[in-house]
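One chain given next:
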Amino acid sequence: MRAPSRPTKFSLAANYDPELVPALAAYPVDEVYGRFPTDGVSSGRPRYLATPLSKADLRRYIRLLDHHGIAFNYLLNGACFGNHEWTRPWQKRVTALLTKLGDLGVRRVTVSTPFLLELVKRRFPEFKVRVGIYAQVDTPRRARFWEGLGADAITLESFSINRNFRRLAAIRQAVRCDLQLIANHVCLLNCPLQTYHQNGFAHASDDTSTLFIDYCFLRCSRLRLMDPSQFIKAAWIRPEDLAAYEAMGYTTFKLLERGIPSAELLRRVKAYSERRFAGNLAGLLLSYGFKQPVRKESLWTLRHFWKPRQVNPLRLKPLLDLARLQGWLSPLPECPIRVDARKIPENFLDGFRNRDCASMDCQVCGYCERIAAEAVSISPEYRTEVLRKYAEMDETLATGSLWGV
């Protein structure tokens, strides 16, 4: 049964800047989402990407959001808890955390595992629970499973089905709960790294001190530089194309990415709210390469990458060089990657309506390659230097020299 008509709304990543919140109130931002840097329960991002945040900070932030009619969605969206969920210490931690969140004013959480959904619904019925993308809901059957467990909302596996209109329509007809699509991701279509990546994130977000190198991000970022058509193949949604999804009953859209500068978050909300954007689409999609600095905790590099008992820290220089070149650690004067929105055909989505991309050979089809040839450009000097650093990093990892073996 098709869900009843709802006004379109956005779920926006949190960067905890109080000055941004009043500006968001001018747009249909229903909630922002985030979490503490560490809370004893795994999540969907490594700890080193977290924005510094105390309990007092979050309390003030939630009160400010509430004043402007915006909710806060707390992320408990780890894909794996290392089987600790069956232990008494983990049970005590998650119960204490949910109690604390309730005291702070949180009434929404996102989960990616069925047991945690059932736990929250049974012990904390006042919480609305959204199922995260790591649950990989991409069929009507999977959507019905989660709705049957009590999910109030589901984020669909947008990386693979945002342009599969037949599947999207079938899922929307199958359930009554709210369905959310991620509008501005740049992940590989049907990403072969996804399961490995999300499990790596889960274990890099807990309280352990093990080094985490984001191999998957390095690999897919390198692939996009080598094959610019990947920027078109990624199943993002243009601001101009929201109406096509609204017509199917999709009215909730998630905007990434956590921790990025306020000006960039506001740019994304504005573009999608106004249903138009004529600039560089890479600025709406990428999580790095901004003119403004990204807020990080003090001694960030030493805290998360100086692990002399685990690796030779000096061998991490190519990784730090990559971070610098791509603007992960410091601002860039201009984004070296450009996806010109004006060169995307007006009828862009029509090219996917009768295609099942998961069943096709991209080399035979060529649709995205043709568009990329016109719309995507990458600074040659940037591309050469970054690919050289990726090659150095590959050598360091594959030969074992990082670990001295």
